[in-house]
Amino acid sequence: MTITAGQVVSLHYTLKNTAGEILDSSEGESPLDYLHGAQNIVPGLEKALEGKKIGDKISVTVSPEEGYGLRQDDLQETMPLSNFEDPSEVSVGLEFEVEVNDNVEIATVVAIEDESVLLDFNHPLAGKVLCFDVSVEAIRAATDEEKEHGHVHDEDGHGHEH
Ligand code: ZN
Description:
Blueprint: E1 7-16, E2 22-25, E3 32-35, H1 43-49, E4 57-62, E5 76-80, E6 95-100, E7 103-113, E8 116-120, E9 130-141, H2 144-149
Antiparallel strand pairs: 1-2, 1-3, 1-9, 4-9, 5-8, 6-7, 7-8
This protein binds zinc ion.
């Protein structure tokens, strides 16, 4: 069985930057499951996995354009410090999730001045070259429901409302 659209793929992965520092890894955790062909993972990695089989190990370097996109300067916004539940917890470099138009985005605090906070809504990995080491652990056909939804369901079913 090789990886094509409509299959659920389980991966172990390590993500490094070009300096070789580990940014993220599934080591010591369950493999990451994703639905191939549904843009669940960054395009550069999804492309590289096409046609691979169980046991394959690949190393892929992904450009920002095929990763989390280029950084956009207009994705910064100022917010009053009082908007935060606990202003004393807010510090430069803090990353947190915000819901913007039904999407979960990651905001990063870039500056705090007086009573206002400058936030950056670029993905923390935007503009970065990504180096993935990936091993294919399992492949299975997606269910019709998974294909319809465009994502993987875990054994308990959904984990979401629709
Ligand atoms: Zn679903």
